[in-house]
Amino acid sequence: MKVLFFNGMNITPHIETEMEIATDLLKEGHDLYFVQCRGELRTCCINFTRAEWICRDCRSRRKNSFNILGLPSEKILYFGDVPVDETLIPEKFPSIDEVKAFTYEGSDIGMGVASSLISSYRDHRLDTEKFKKEIRDGIWTAMYVHENAKRMLDELKPDLVIFFNGRYLEIRPMMRLCEERGIHFQTHERGGIIEKYILWDNSTPHSLTALANEIEEGWEKAPEGKHERGKQFFVDRRNRIMQSWFVFTADQERGSLPADFEKNRKNIVLYNSSLDEYEGIASISGKIYASDNAGIAKLLESFEHRPDIHFYLRVHPNLKGLENTQVRELNEIGRRFKNLTLIGAEEMIDTYALMDAADIVVVFSSTIGVEAAFWGKPVVLLGNSFYDRLKGFYMPATHEEAVALLEQDLQPLPWGDDLLKYGYWELERGIYYKYYKAEALFEGTFMGKSIAVTPVQKALNYLLTKGTRKLAKGKRLLGKLKKK
User: Fold this and answer.
1) How far apart, in whole angstroms, are the C-alpha atoms of residue 333 and residue 146?
2) SUPFAM superfamilies recorded for this chain (predicted)?
């Protein structure tokens, strides 16, 4: 089988995941090819400013990975000199929505550009005037990759194409071409814990349908003890144990509640999400409201006349330190509504203590929704999420239905085994690494070796980025390293 690896995310653990997959395929005797960027792309998902030291670091990591795999040079493919019609790229885009809507030869490359920019600059309503150069460079790069991908597929005719995630600007064009041509592709991502990775066949990590099927199939195939394993997910989360990503509640003051919390009124706790995580993904969007912020404001407006009902908004800790569109809008909502206590992302109020004290929990897509249902709270789910096909949630279809629910004395809904299915899936999804050993979220070794740049390369990066004024210092540093 002829396999093409087409990756742009050359950071740990994603480059090691690619190597993990490649090692097994090589042992099975398959014919592998890899695409290497030598700086031809104007931008990419990890280097929008095209900083030279990041480019060198990326090439160094890729070279190290090829050396460890023992990959011959003829198996490395490069981007070629293909024409890109820049007249097709608008001089400016009125909003990020127009960027998302941009297509090229039927491929939604604009969504990949928007998704990458939103993730990089952490703002779901990115200022398209301020970032017009980055947008145009992103569109150009995606078109350039699209043309090169067509050439590579025509010449190589791979049986399988493997790449990271599928949503980023320099990867999405290849995915869409594979879909168009009926070529089998796989996407990889982090697993449920740092010791695992996941492979999806002809899908992405963001397909809600695929994930719902995966949860059910995983439960059906699960061995004895799956109920205890499913419960462990929720216990670990509450105990702030890291699984596959940062523990945002780790520094919170356990048991703490807002100073104005009064138990003698109806308390509804809202949990939002950091919108930049989802806004660039087509399948995850508002079900009732245009955004979390819009939904929060409309609910508060509907209950302004009810002094017996008070809302608490636990701003997602992932928004800590940001001054983006979402945070500015939330601060304005906090000033506008007297029936809301806004708990800032940086505040130490305990997410779980707040959940326990709530009469009703309201979520849009955050994982805290499934956790709250597990711990016996009535949960109103207002958006699309990975768990919205499971039992245990009130799911209104309109704003009016949401208001009617919140006016009631809601009780927790029965969920059978459904939430344990989710917990089991979270912990068990993925394939255990055999060759890569994770030491932290972004650190680890492959077959005992680090893929990170060597000390000499680090010195060269320092020397080249700081210029001639640092020449003497750089030479001394290189000299010391060579003696070691």
Assistant:
1) 42
2) UDP-Glycosyltransferase/glycogen phosphorylase (SSF53756)
